[in-house]
Amino acid sequence: MALPARKSVTVLTCALAVALGITAAGMSGVSAAQGPDRAAQQSKAGKSYVDQALTETVLWSEDFDSVPTPTDFTHTLPEGWSKENAGFTTGEARWAGWAITDIRDWTWAVGTDKRHYFTRAHDKLAVVESQHQRLNDTDRLNTALKSPAVDVKKHDRIVLGFDSHYRQGDAPQHATVSVSFDGGKPVELRRYDADKLSSHEAITVDVPEGARKAVFTWSYKDGHNDWFWAIDNARVSLPMGEVEGEPSAVIDVISDIQGGIDNYKSAVRQLNDMPDPAGAMFVNGDFVDLGKQELYDEFEAARKEVPHASGRDYYTIGNHEMLGPEGSEAYIDRFLDFTGQDKVWREEIVDGVPNITVNTEYYSDVDRKGVEPYVKLSDEQLNWLDSRLAHWAKQGKPVMLYNHQAVPYTVTETHSSWNGNDYFDLEAFTEVVGKYSNIIMFTSHTHQSLKAEDWWGRLRAEATGNMRGFPVVNTGAIKNATEPHGDHQSRRLEGNHSSGLRVKVFEDRVRVEAWDFVAGKKIKHVDFPVPAKRKG
User: Fold this and answer.
1) Separation of alpha carbons 451 and 448, rounded Å
2) Which residue among 224, 273, 336, 407 is least packed, with the fewest CB closer than 10 Å?
3) Which residues pair with 137 in a beta bridge?
């Protein structure tokens, strides 16, 4: 299957500008540039859906991105924000309390030490850098960052949301988040006294009767050359409330079986036994350990022994399906024969919900010896994807989008350079998907534990103008689990681990549940708003 390869580019995308200098050496049939049909397709496909209304009411937000940082950091704050420092007169002025910077400049100045694990951050963020403030023995770092007054009148309950990256220092150092209504006494909402890395915080706050304005404060207290705290993407919204009714669609999502047949059969049995039967199962790549036929046969035997109850299972291509000496064309043909597809991309409607799979069209393990980039998407596939996403955005439908490889700075361990080069042309892909807010994307490959704080994140592609982006969820892995270790590595967790997702679609939200198939219990869930119904 010869594929016209794409021109190599430098990619600036998602939460951190990730430079990917990728050459086309060793790839077959490289074209010089995108065809004119790409530009024409993009001009009509999805630009009007950048600000599509969702079933969530946001009262106020701040992402710090508009703050200029001419010297790579600043103490200038967005309009209406303020800062209070106390307890110190010594130390480096750059880190004298809360500052605005970005991850690249922050880590260049002081090093990594897990600072770059903040996958939820995008562009500018607010930072307390205690370790490198270099106070004398008698000083203590106390710094409070205060929001503008947020209008909360006529609301009895609100939700403060923000992304947080906190590394605990030595006691008594700690941090708090508090709220004050109409200038009254601050009320503590959350306290930090242990590491909590790359988390999304959603704090429900009761509004006193008659209150009109709320001010939120992030306070780092009693520090002395300790670690750090960073926040980003602060917002106040109205609660979505409790879920009502039964889901209109349920979809099971697993990945990374890689020969873990017993775990696979156990997971499918558990999914089949759950309430709210699923209408389909998506296996998001690496269902075999190598692309050879005998491993397909082994998996097919397990699939027949324990079929998914829906009778509908769909697949994406992982890197493992493409590994071995037979070559790209042989492995893609084997995948197509197995799935009954004529192309590697696919759309399936499950109980009214569109599900789209996208897949690589070329990878030579003979040339690359297992080394990325793995995902090579043709203009034809990208144009098709753009047109389908535009169609469903116009229909006001949430779309479930599947690809095995992760996108940089979205979910756990995608800060790592090992997961930053999986797409041959990442820019082309994010230019297509980044225009839409009605997507929920599912990625795999990393085997990262679903117990991590950033088991889901958000893809934002600046060039599209859609700074809200859309959620990206890690699918876990049927075989093994890992956690970040060091700057760019990960380590395998001891024992047997097997995890996956259940996706439940309701009228006002998509609920994604993370499941531990070894313990046989739900780990947690997250609710994502869906496109709001148009009035009239």
Assistant:
1) 9
2) 273
3) none
